[in-house]
Amino acid sequence: MSDERGNAPLSPSARAQAVEAFIREARRVGAAAERGRLIFALDATMSRQPTWDLAQSLQGRMFEETAALGGLDVQLVYFRSFGECRASGFVGGGQGLAALMAKISCRGGRTQIGKVFRHALEETSARRIGALVFVGDAMEENVDELCELAGRLGLLGVKAFMFHEGFDAQAGDAFREIARLSGGAYAAFDASAPRRLAELLSAAAAYAAGGLAELERRATKGEDAARLLLSQMG
To answer: Which terminal residue of the chain, N or C, has fewer Cβ atoms less than 10 Å from its own Cβ?
Structure first.
């Protein structure tokens, strides 16, 4: 017996296979539509070249760790020199981001963290940003203005993960407050121990792609970086 369009009815097993195929396709489309978006911002002033090189060598971990979560698109933002602050397009793989970073050298200048935050606000107003990761060692701006911007990011759901290299106490205090106001987290690292930064980047990327549930899953598995970030996030 045929249906109204003249097609023969499917057997129970064929119907089951068709349903399974539909579910797989729906999951695939859903994952593609929900790819995480992360802004990866770095201080590219002169003192930062060794850490820039380190970040370039480690950034692929962000993509590897999030592939099973539907993937991650990352935008590189950096500042250097006299008033130069630039943003790339979003890239969906470590090779693409590495190619962008390889073209950039660090130059002398002051920090421009405020410009990074304003850019993040503009980006997330167009399409949601899962998280902002900032890697730097100094803060040479008005901290109250930065905190106001951090609060605005937090209201829009953009958590700032402030990863601090070195021992500048003023920068550390500012980064902690920025992270708190945005609902994100602060962590310090030493460039001589690259594993620490790699783990922090992986945890932040996992949050951007999979949300709080993914960070909690990693913390439950015993990942120290995930536990550290999770313990601070509001």
So the answer is: N
Q: What is the DSSP string of 122-189?
A: HHHHHS---EEEEEES---S-HHHHHHHHHHHHHTT-EEEEEEES--HHHHHHHHHHHHHHT-EEEEE
Whole-prediction pTM = 0.85
Strand arrangement of the beta sheet that strand 84-91 belongs to? 84-91, 72-80, 36-43, 131-136, 159-165, 185-189
Comparing C-alpha atoms, which of 201, 194, 200, 160 is closest to residue 179?
A: 160
C-alpha count within 13 angstroms, C-beta hemisphere, residue 193: 8
CA distance 31 to 54: 30
Rg (CA), the chain: 21
Q: What is d(CA 130, CA 96) in angstroms, rounded to the nearest whole number? A: 20
pLDDT reading at 207 higher than 70: yes
In this prediction, residue 233 carries a pLDDT of: 94
| 24 CB-contact burial (10 Å; exposed 0-12 / middle 13-18 / buried 19+) | exposed
What three-state secondary structure class fits 200?
Answer: helix
Of 129, 191, 136, the closest CA to residue 156 belongs to 129
